[in-house]
Amino acid sequence: MAERNASDAVARLLVADDNKVNRLLLTRSLELQGHRVACAENGRIALGMLRAEPFDLLLLDMEMPEMTGFEVLEHLAADAALRDMPVLVTSSLEGMAHVVRCIELGADDYLPKPVNPVLLKARINSSLEKKRLRDQQKELVRRFATSEVAQDLQESGFALGGRRVQATVMFSDIRGFTALVESQPPEETIELLNTYYTLMFDAINSYGGVVNQMIGDGLMAIFGAPLPLADHPAHAVRAALEMVAMIEQFNVERTACGKAAIHIGIGIASGDMVAGYTGTQRRATYTCIGDTVNLAARLEAHTKVALRTVLIDRAVRAALPEDLAVEPLGAVPFKGKALAVEVFAVSTEA
Amino acid sequence: MPAPAPAPSIDTVIYAELQDAAGAEFAAELVVTFLEEAPLMLAELRSALADGSAERYRRAAHSLKSNGHTFGATALAELARQLELGGLPADARPLDVLDTEYARAAAALQELARG
To answer: pTM of the predicted model, to two decimals?
Structure first.
């Protein structure tokens, strides 16, 4: 249709109504507005279709055999994948109480039958526009935050401020990165970083960790927040070993094409920290702060001095199962720490 | 004194709006569907009454009301609405009244659909 603009893309709608005349008429109205429409004769069929294929919006009758519209709304609210599905209720049920109940159950709007076509068009466009914005927002959150942070945001909402958690923090960076950058064209450095981050994210995520900061060649990851994780110290160490193994693999490829091997250093500490969103209302990141976090950063820096790849603190050491070999390196005085800290190296021999 | 002329069974303004919005041909097809479906709803009302099922009775009346409004069969819709909200009646007399009104509305709709 000529008057449709780019944001007015064809939407896929589902009409759920047990009455054939209503179903045909609604479908006709929606098709005349340029949408693609599928139909369901009752709530149970509608729910099955919503779970089987993607729809942009549901037009829902309330009075239906087998499963009523109210029950459909309840099922949608309880289903994480369908919770955000826009729903317009079309009904000729009498009384404001029904309208209120629909809205409380999560319906976007309530259109009395017979549905006025002009009103229908306006409500559908507004609901689709809201869904588009929501999808865009979700996509942004997905791209710039980890899926765990995205899930935490969706479930708890966004609030600046922290809460005290028990978690494990990891810092990692590439040894001699500055020299490497100076020795090769920037395009190659970007490509190297992209590969490096892909490998590291993969290793960290597969052990339940969350990468929350990337600075140049360094990264910070959290195990145990925002979502709780059992045995987070062991998970972090296993992720570190996986990272080291991946870098070794990567080096085989690099040396085969005449490039210098790269080496990483990893520091891990476990304990109390404050986790939460810091920043402003407009721009914030999920992070952790506290002594444990500082210690992990110091341990990572200390890998250069100790000439070991993975260093951990006593709390991580204490939580490790026996199959992970660990060597005590004695107490090390760190800047900002009144007492020397016991440091352990994790064996990276496979 | 002559009896007052019976109210028209179909509000032609509403039917014309339906034709405008959905197309005259589609509206006519929709009338055919309604004339197929409505007798099933009337039968369901009688069957629900015989079975003493207030829920089925209410639902069938609700459906008929909804369709009545769609076509401008305002008197039929109003009778169906009374049944929807009134609960199971003592006997089938309200359904006889409904059948009569449906017959009037059906005849008028067929006339309108023929154009």
So the answer is: 0.57
